[in-house]
Design brief:
By secondary structure, the protein is mostly beta strands. It contains no helices and twelve strands. Helices cover 0% and strands 43% of the residues. The strands form three sheets. It has a five-stranded antiparallel beta sheet, with no helix packed on it. Strands 7, 8, 9 and 12 form a four-stranded antiparallel beta sheet that branches. The chain is elongated, with a radius of gyration of 22 Å.
Length: 174
């Protein structure tokens, strides 16, 4: 017999993602996930971890290596029919959160000769170098646990000629 049609239930969409075994210990049922994909570029959908497979599987590569992954099932929080069964998607599963965290782009963070991290902040037309302690690392941002307060103006991608105490002129939106 040939299959002529497949009926899908769009009211209860689920996404299956493969999580490398290195990260599976951080995944728990109920965590929030952000789902993106080429077929719905520019849109994000959210869901929750609904189930974690009890078994792992090996993925082989052409070079002979392999990766062990565990399937995680995400329930999708949408009634739209933009998502379709069979689409390729990517998912970010939020394993931890910080309320009121201070976050800056990686391009703001520098290291001195002793590998201590710092940023440059601007106040009253003067640049100040401030030592920081970083926390969580995101895709292109990093949490600042100590050293910078919310609302301070941090310099993004400063020139190497910038120094502590230097007078600068700032432009809004630049």
């Amino acid at each position: 017999q040939n299959v002529l049609a497949t009926v899908s239930d769009f009211s209860a969409l689920q996404v299956r993602v493969s999580v490398p075994e290195l990260y599976i210990s951080n995944i728990q049922v109920g965590q929030t996930a952000e789902i993106t994909g080429e077929a719905f570029s520019g849109k994000k959908y959210f869901g929750k971890v609904a189930k974690i497979s009890p078994t792992a599987k090996q993925k082989s590569t052409l070079t002979g290596g392999g990766e062990t992954t565990i399937d995680v099932l995400l329930s999708v929080d949408t009634k739209e029919n933009v998502l379709r069964p069979g689409y390729s998607v990517s998912a970010k599963i939020y394993t931890d959160s910080r309320k009121d965290a201070v976050v800056v782009p990686y391009a703001c963070v520098w290291q001195d000769e002793g590998e201590k991290e710092f940023v440059y902040v601007e106040s009253g037309g003067v640049i100040y170098q401030k030592a920081i302690r970083t926390g969580f690392e995101l895709d292109d941002e990093v949490e600042i646990e100590n050293g910078v307060k919310r609302g301070e103006r941090v310099v993004i991608s400063p020139a190497e000629t910038l120094t502590h105490g230097m007078a600068v002129r700032t432009q809004e939106g630049a």
